[in-house]
Amino acid sequence: MISASMAWLSQLKHVETYGSPARDTKEIVASQVKWDMNRPLVIVPERKVNYKFACAEAAYIITGQNRIEFIVNNAMKSFAEYGTDDGVWQAGSYGPPFVDQVPYVVDVMRQDLYTRQAVISIWRPRPYKSKDIPCTLTLQFLVRKDLETGEDALHTVVNMRSSDVWRGLIYDMFCFSIMSAVVAHYVGVRRLGSGYLHAGSSHLYNRDAAAAVNVVQQAFEYIQGPTIEVMDVGDMFDWLMGACSLGDREDCLIALMGGAE
Fold first, then answer.
1. What is the pTM of this model?
2. What are the chain's domains?
């Protein structure tokens, strides 16, 4: 399995090279990205990933929050524009549907660990007009045995209507892996497998094209990153927010790297 770093670089190069013009982007229609959910951090120095935001967003989701101030205060002030007048990230917050549906997923997987029915829906029927229509449609969790070791691993299949390869994919791979680690803990599976992200539109905005070309040309090295652990929501939240609370993105990354096995 390939790390998130390698998966992201590969997809970025693919879209930048082969994407077709679509509005203000280059776009690949019906694209798949596969990564090792044990290695979900993209660590490519040229990209300057906001690790504080990655941690805050993942913590926000797994605890079911929808108050925009949590993200604004902990990581990214620019997100304030997406909230409603009462400070709620109403339509696009993944946390409430995730927390609401995890008990169902855990229940069906405890009844049949290898079920094909463990699906969480983020998309709501007939979504109302909003600044933050969710990009993610569904997550499906599948436990399967590794053919070589015979051990169970949890794999996650994510369906997205839209995936911004430069600004969004980095953080999505991390968040989906963290969500999967929480589910794995509650169903008693000790290791993660692959994440599969299917995007109706995998795209690169024209405004990011020059930066993307620079990274594709210069990023010959990348760091595998820490192996995340399967743990419950409370411990995962503490780990994420402990890293997020540090001074800057580099301090946050060092803290995350300290969690490597």
1. 0.93
2. 4-124+131-257 (3.30.572.10)
